[in-house]
Amino acid sequence: MAHSGRPLSPHLGIYRWQVQMVTSILHRATGIALVAGSGMVLWGLYALAAGATDWTAFTAIAGSVPGQILLAGWTWSLMYHLCNGVRHLFQDAGMGFEIAQFVRSSWLAVIVSLLLTVAIWAYLLAGGVL
Amino acid sequence: MSDMRNPLGRARGLGSAKAGTGHWWMQRLTALALVVLSVWFLITVLGLLHADYPTALATLARPWNAVLMVAFTTAMFWHAQLGLQVVIEDYVHTRWLETFLVVLVKLLAVLSVIAAALAVVRIALGH
Q1: From the CA of A17, how many Å to the nearest CA of chain B?
Q2: Residue B116 is nearest to which of A42, A52, A88, comparing CB atoms?
Q3: CB-based burial of residue B117 (10 Å sphere; 0-12 exposed, 13-18 middle, 19+ buried)?
Q4: Confidence class of residue A12 from pLDDT cuts 50, 70 and 90?
Q5: Which residues from A are below 8 Å from B93, CB to CB?
Q6: What is the tally of structural domains in chain B?
Q7: Which of A89, B43, B94, B96 has a Cα-to-Cα distance from A117 of 20 to 30 A?
Q8: Which chain A residues touch B39 with a CB distance below 8 Å?
Q9: Greater confidence, A122 or B14?
Q10: In order of start, what are the domains of chain A with their CATH numbers?
């Protein structure tokens, strides 16, 4: 960017650490991760449309150890982006703007997304038995 | 309501020079749709855990599942395009590269929407 000599706002390192910084950065990071995940959705749909051989190859890769690690990452990314996204929608509607509410809803998005991810993978690793 | 701008302001073309709140609003609309659709997607995929190929195919070929899958992929790629556009605009400061990347992402998103819809149509009607 061009330097105009006008004053700039302090850079990130100046600020005291706050949970809202983390939720903001994570929202963008998980969003970018989910773009890669959307490619997996498209691939899955194509494998299903193409036939049994392609579908078996797809599920074998998805079910492999690296595949499961990626899927677990995408599960949390989706749960977090969903929880924090709902938080943002409430804020867009003008709710939850007190600082205390802001901090509380930030922690809520982080903790609930982790709990949901653990619940989903507990279900999967138990073989779908509840 | 009448136009709140004075005649000079209107003549100078003040106000939105581009799409105004269009981007912001579509990001929220697609987000709202995805709150419902991504939960449906997750539950549907979890339900296919022990499914063999014919079962998976038959599940997605059910009318409501096919409709919701196209709705999900369309909202997803649309929302992804809007989000990536903001990321590009924030971090890419070379004007031609910024424009190039935003246009590229838009075109890839449209292509992905068409590709996903075509796959679902084939699953729903082709077997």
Answers
A1: 22
A2: A42
A3: middle
A4: confident
A5: 1
A6: 1
A7: A89
A8: 82
A9: A122
A10: 19-125 (1.20.1300.10)
